[in-house]
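Fig. S4 source data, part A: sequence.
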Amino acid sequence: MYERKNPLMRLLGGTWRAIDSSRKVAVNLLFLAIVIVLLVFVFSSDEPEIADTTALVVAPKGQLVEQLTAKSIEQMIDEARGAATPETLLKDVIDAIKAAKDDDRVQVLLLDLSSFSGARLTKLQDLGEAIIDFKTSGKKVIATADMYGQDAYYLAAHADEILTHTMGAVMLEGYGRYRMYFKEGIDKLGLDVHIFKVGTYKSAVEPFLLDGMSDYAKEANREWLGDLWRIYLDDVAAARGIPAENLDDYAQNFPRFMAEANGDTTKAALDFGLADQALTRVETREHLIELVGEDEEAHSYNQIAFTDYLKTIDDDRFGREAKGDRVGIVVARGTILDGTQPAGTIGGESTAALIRQARNDDDVKAIVLRVDSGGGSAFASEVIRRECEAARADGKPVIASMGSVAASGGFWISTSTDQIWAHPSTITGSIGIFGMIPTYQRPLAEHLGIHVDGISTAPLAGVRVDRELPPEVGDVIQGIIEHGYREFLQRVADSRGMTTEEVDQIAQGRVWSGVDAHELGLVDHLGDLDDAVAAAAELAELGDDYAVSFIEKEEEFKDKMIREMLAEAMHVAGQDLPEASPFDEMLIRIERAAADFAALNDPNHAYALSNIETD
């Protein structure tokens, strides 16, 4: 029944609606004003001033990566407070150094490595080559850091002069492989983790099966870690002019060298020839003023950060506006998941869509798939592989260029290409598949007295994480895993011109270095991304007249605006945020280990995933 409101209520309601409408208008106008101000701030075209003689300061923060990870607000806050590792795009650093080589204003390249947390060896090698090329200009390269970790020292070794702090150190710890193992904890909780796998060396699931590394995993890890360590020592020895065996001696017998230096880490580095001078920050600043002049307003040396310097060079470094014949690069970095995924993660749909975009672009004559992934969903890997296959069927050459890691699913997506290129220090192989389903019916019953029961018309309807897994269902999943492994072997055999039996002998989930993979026939050539691009252009018969274009999902305007705003805000506010404690970091590490597996979304629960992180 309709109830008529009294006049007072109508008046109050109308007044409130008027006030509410006015409030919304005011808020919208305020928001619009803020957006306009921020747009002017964020997208200002003003270029930074550069002195006639200056130092280009390359100060990478956190990890060097092939592709920046799309971050949520929470992740950006974690990064600002030190609870997450920041990222620096490798291409940004290399592009800045290349441009500065021919810039008469830049007289010194300063490698400030104090905030650099590291990178995989392939990325260090690519950046090292850029530094070597810069030095051909006759300009000086100086490295500085309060303390040099192993990765930072690789870059510093390429400098003409290595400066350390008077309380600094050089740490060469070698390469190691350690993980958390959860078996005892799982048993204490009463959980049942059902593992289905193929491959003697497939160690990605070992933390859920064992309390320590298996002998098979130790054998494989010792081999590829040894290869990487030899490459590291040889590269640093050539750059610094110190015999490789001496560097290894420093790492193996660091306690002895420390004892000889009476515990003085700086003296140990200087005595061994790993650093040239130990200077305070004041002395370092004065040294640089002598080289490039003084910025009197800043009371420091003339300098420009590489991030600011990038604003002064080519706006189309990624070839987004390139015309004519092109080689398209699709970056596949991160864990391979089903569906559409953000940057920093490989999506079966989203990465395949980028390959398809390149395939349907008449100006893109060849495609390079840059792989930096330890694998993931077998289903998503096959979706991507099929898209590469379709591009080749259309007559476009496709080259796989393996970055730091191209293992398991990362190898799978590389098999439908004309050629596979890898760095000598690429971590690859891990040809194997596993599945994993945890159930927790026992702790529910034992500790809470909760039981699950019911009926179903078919076995699969009763599969739940709070019920014991039926044996026949386990048999089905194991059959799916074994079928997937046979499919994987066949993909590799067809790609490499081998029999499945030959592939199986070097597969079994074993990880190999790029050097070993090349000798075993798993890759065609050893070389970097530039080599792969050149090979793609040659297959497409482009000659020397072609452009290189990165094929990426176009970022929406609002997303770009929000990202830029948040990045600037976090940069400003970061110093006021509480820093993460060691306990926070431990919890985050455990949470990430669980989250990595929780994110896996293969529809068949079949995963071609190695135990090697991308970064």
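Fig. S4 source data, part B ends here. The radius of gyration is 28 Å.
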